[in-house]
């Protein structure tokens, strides 16, 4: 009886695995045609400096409007693009579009673009970035690259040199998703990023600004020790804003201020007064 049950469970498991594989390979083929077609677009989310009460940056976020499935989250298709290697083309496309869009904004507003660690493995990121800057004509000092810490792992000294070269161009380097990746903090000494972005999973736990949130405090303390300014992402409530501000976090991003929006909406947003909540 137990054997029968196990076999049954295995059959279910195998079917689920197969479904997942089918879904992923479909997604992969669809990604290729999406890049050829016109199914990707960018949305933009403002980043605000509290002390100056102004928009200092905008994060570019890729969107995929799939012909039959509708909108698919980057959390679903970016890993597929990383796996297949398509991320190099996709990443270059995002960067080019983002730099072109930034031309329409005030010069004080920088554009942040996410670069997958996989791009460093598969591509010459320095060459790709400098060529996009050249063709788009965007000054390097207006570009921020958001990179996760895994770029510094796996005996990656070539990546360290690439980061240094990008920095020498005057590009701002942001350590993205800080706090959720790896247990080891030793990589923090390997390269000094210009900014740390605390992952939204830490912010979402904050409900009462009077409570203490030890992990968030520790992360802020560490950022201070490393002399890296901090951006908190995923701010959705005034309580969360109050709390991160009380800990000295000056840069914020989240639905509470603005959701990711189209470039037309962004131009509108930037030309109107900031929301009263700030
Ligand atoms: P990320 O780089 O950490 O980007 C921030 C994510 O948080 C975005 O999700 C944004 O829409 C979301 N977010 C911002 N404020 C709030 C908030 O107040 N509440 C909530 N619940 N969410 C908020 P999105 O656009 O779905 O992107 C997810 C992830 O996909 C990104 O995380 C990034 O890792 C990746 N991604 C997006 N666009 C690109 C891209 O062009 N290239 C690469 N390599 N990765 C990308
Ligand atoms: Mg990011
Ligand atoms: Mg990211
Ligand atoms: Mg994040």
Automatic annotation (TrEMBL):
Domain of life from the UniProt record: Bacteria
Domain EAL: 24-274
Name of the protein: Uncharacterized protein
Lineage start: Bacteria, Pseudomonadati, Pseudomonadota, Alphaproteobacteria, Acetobacterales
